[in-house]
Design a protein that fits this description.
The chain is built from three helices and no strands. The chain is mainly α. It has a domain of 67 residues. The longest helix is centred in the first third of the chain and has 29 residues. The model has no long low-confidence stretch (mean pLDDT 88).
Amino acid sequence: PVAQNTAKASPFYKTDQFVWTLKWTHIHLFGMNMIFIFIGGIAVFLDVGVKWRTLLVVLPFAGVLIDIAAMWLKGYVSPAFFWLHIPGGGLFGFTFFFVSGRALWEMWWRRKNYAAT
């Protein structure tokens, strides 16, 4: 006779993988997005074109979504989706450093002739 498995499987939402992924998704969605709301507020006041400002506000949020998608996809589809962390993190990393650097440059080092006005 074949022994049958009588152990009851845990529901999907109680697995360690699900709890871990949900915890990190929560941190990324709320913590990082709060940072990028402030960065977006700074980007709006940069002296660049409207298209650049729009892009600088949207890019970090797209990066966070890609990063979160990578977490879920690598856990439940294939570990190969780990590589999505690179473009996701690259988007919000680039935006953070560009906006910060550009804002500091505009405040402290750019020379503009305001006396002529």
